[in-house]
Design goal:
- The protein contains 16 helices and eleven strands.
- By secondary structure, it is mainly alpha-helical.
- It has a three-stranded antiparallel β-sheet with strand order 1-3-2.
- The longest helix has 37 residues.
- The radius of gyration is 24 Å and the shape is globular.
- The two termini are 46 Å apart.
Length: 392
């Protein structure tokens, strides 16, 4: 290959999964530099070894495409990651990678931006605002970082943290997933080496609440805007909108808790040293994974009951709903035309699981011990299956 830029451009379309996400996360980091620990946090990965492996795989692919090391080093003089980045040991962050300039050029030429993109009604913090212009929300690079945005929405859902508004629930599929992302940590508290934590530092907010947050300097908090709304009375004609929105909130909490359950489970185990097979499990006396599993199960049940309630009332009227109110989830699904065997079976399994786990954190089912985490996995699969079925 004639240049490193062309070699990287050739490799980019072949990257998938974690490799692609790690590459993008490093590009969107300040100065295109970050440690494996920082990348692990921003991507929500369970171990830094996943980041290290991705950097090695990408570097090897670029080396094979380019045909040589960019600095002319021999085969035994470098590690694979050094093909795409340089590295420095730092006192506060440990070992930090920085993408080579040619790699950054290749990513930009392939359509990536080093600062991300602003959503509708947002402008970057370096862009001018003109007198007489429509009111805009000024956002910083952390809010435009697409990797951080994706991770924030993955955990918190595309639902406004202040008012609960869900674009997808109100406008349909065309607006599903649309949301602004607000950086809640004051920039005055952010140092040069700061790396955004998408779960702790970012919150999804609708454009209206985002604008209200930024009406003052310093900005209002999400909690303050939520408090403003709670002090106001809702007009009667908005109740149906908020009922639909609440259903979406239940779903978001259930999905988030299920994801957190697996994060906690993975964080409590590591591979045995020396390449030996098996895992070393750390006992969690606070049972955090179990608690998240129970939250996922409870809110999946709340979502199911509310979702089916609204559907039956809409399609069959309130009288029919009262007739089916105390019937099983399977009966309600079949009334709505959903007779998919796998969904019906999962609904029956979920209903039994929810009942049994109220009393114990594990129970015997068909000769097998079922624990809360297993029930949460089934609940998540059921939620996603029903959601997909009613969209089709």
């Amino acid at each position: 290959m004639s240049s490193l830029v062309e070699a990287v451009k050739t490799v980019i379309p072949t990257l998938t999964g974690t490799d692609s996400r790690v590459f993008q996360a490093l590009l969107f980091s300040p100065h295109q530099a970050a440690s494996a620990g920082q990348l692990r946090k921003i991507l929500g990965l369970s171990a830094v070894v996943q980041v290290n492996n991705s950097m090695g795989r990408i570097g090897r692919k670029v080396r094979e495409s380019f045909g040589a090391h960019p600095d002319g080093l021999g085969p035994d003089e470098y590690e694979w990651w050094h093909v795409i980045a340089t590295g420095t040991h730092t006192a506060d962050r440990g070992f930090v990678w920085q993408l080579r300039n040619e790699v950054v050029d290749a990513l930009v030429a392939s359509g990536y931006s080093t600062s991300g993109e602003a959503s509708a009604n947002e402008v970057g913090d370096s862009e001018p605002l003109f007198e007489g212009a429509v009111r805009e929300v000024r956002v910083n690079a952390y809010e435009r970082n697409p990797v951080a945005r994706e991770r924030c929405i993955e955990v918190h859902g595309a639902i406004c943290a202040a008012c609960g508004f869900d674009f997808g629930a109100i406008y349909g599929e065309i607006a599903a997933g649309f949301i602004h992302v607000h950086h809640i940590k004051p920039l005055s508290e952010v140092g040069a080496e700061y790396e955004v934590d998408p779960v702790e530092d970012l919150r999804p907010v609708c454009p209206n609440c985002h604008a209200v947050i930024h009406l003052t300097n310093p900005p209002r908090t999400v909690e303050e805007v939520r408090s403003l709304l709670q002090k106001r009375k809702m007009p009667n004609n908005t109740m149906n909108q908020f009922a639909i929105t609440n259903v979406s909130v239940y779903k978001a909490i259930a999905i988030s808790a299920h994801l957190k359950m697996h994060e906690l489970t993975n964080a409590g185990r590591r591979l045995k040293d020396g390449g030996s097979p098996g895992w070393i499990i750390t006992f969690d006396h606070e049972q955090r994974s179990f608690k998240q599993a129970m939250i996922a199960i409870v809110f999946t049940g709340m979502w199911l009951e509310a979702f089916l309630h609204l559907r039956i009332v809409r399609d069959h009227g309130l009288k029919k709903f009262k007739e089916y109110d105390f019937k099983s989830l399977a009966d309600k699904l079949q009334l709505l035309g959903c007779s998919e065997p796998a969904i019906i079976e999962a609904a029956q399994k979920f209903q039994k699981c929810r009942k049994e786990l109220v009393h114990e954190k594990a129970y015997c089912d068909a000769g097998q011990i079922t624990k809360a985490q297993d029930g949460a996995d089934n609940a998540n699969q059921l939620l996603l299956a029903i959601d997909e079925w009613f969209k089709s």
